[in-house]
Amino acid sequence: MLSNMISFRLPFVVLQLSFVTFFLAFPARLKALDTGSTLPTTPVESLCNTTSNASFCMSILSRYPASSPTTNLQNLTAFVVDLALLDVNSTYLASQSLLHENDAPTNDKSTLQDCLEQMSDCQDGLKQSIRRLRHLDGHDPPLTVSGQVMDVRVWLSASLTYMETCWDELADPRAALLKTLLRGAAQNKVEPLLSMALSFSERLQQPGATSIVYAFSTDHDHHRHRL
């Protein structure tokens, strides 16, 4: 059953290429940040300390493009959501590959089809969140900004729910092999990233949060250059 892993490995080759494309293109997609010469900066560590897992947060932000010594919260949030979307895309491709295995059991195919629908909805929500974050203008009226960030929080929360529903499907004993191949590989990546993005977006909704300039420490910045 599902013994042919050649087609299953294909999505991970695609994922590797996606990561290369992502890190080459992401700096160009960042909204220009005018820090000026008088604006104070806030250490990015202080932002991570507001999350439930500061060390995980710092490890994720160590991947942030080193060409950006300072940034804002909307850019950081979009970056984290981008990473989550990459993992969801990878899982989606792996699921599609397994779905077309000729020896895949009917129960597995039914579970996979349900998961594919959930993941597709999740992808839509993450893409909407990224678009909204990249066009977020801190100079807009506070109520406008707050409403736009609330949209992001709703989309992110819904996306997390979609993925959790998929994981619940895979928790069925009849889908034990699928759980091994998909759930363990993706759940530990997607859920922490979405939780981190939700934490950032909750903070982003606070008055004045869009204008805060975050800076990477010297040690952290050096680590980013080495990645």
TrEMBL record:
CDD domains: PMEI-like_3
GO terms for MF: enzyme inhibitor activity
Matching SUPFAM superfamilies: Plant invertase/pectin methylesterase inhibitor
Cited Gene3D superfamilies: Invertase/pectin methylesterase inhibitor family protein
Alphabetized Pfam families for the sequence: PMEI (PF04043)
Alphabetic keyword roster: Signal
Pectinesterase inhibitor domain sequence ranges: 39-200
Name recorded for this polypeptide: Pectinesterase inhibitor domain-containing protein
Organism field: Ceratopteris richardii
